[in-house]
Amino acid sequence: MPGTRERIQADLASGRLWKARDRLRGVLRSAPSNQWALEQLGDVYFRMGDLPEAGRVWFGS
Predict the structure, then answer these.
(1) What is the CATH number of the domain that holds 24?
(2) pTM attached to this predicted model
(3) Which pLDDT band, with edges at 50, 70 and 90, does 27 fall under?
C-alpha cells in the first residue's frame, strides 16, 4: 500500500491537482513545517493558476 508521498506524486502525475492539494494540506495539518509538503503545495497552487496562494505558501517555506 503506497504511502502519502507516493499517493501525492501519483496524483500529480495523473493531473489530479485538487486531490494532491487536499492530501498536502492534510500533511501540513499534522506537520506544519514539512518542507517537502510546503514546496509541493506551492507548486500545485501555481499549476492550478492560484498565484497569490502559491506565493504565500512558497514565502512560508
Answers:
(1) 1.25.40.10
(2) 0.90
(3) very high
Report the number of distinct structural domains present in the chain. Answer: 1
Q: Which residues of 24-58 are buried (b: 16+ CB within 10 A; e: fewer)?
A: beebbeeeeeeeebbebbbbbbeeeeeeebbeebe
| Amino acid at site 9 | Q
Residue 33 corresponds to which cell in the numbers above?
513545517
Domain that holds residue 9: 4-60
The 8 Å CB, 24+ separation contacts for 12-20 are: 12/40, 12/44, 17/44, 17/47, 17/48, 18/48, 20/44
- Would you tell me how many other CB atoms lie within 10 Å of the CB of residue 9? 14
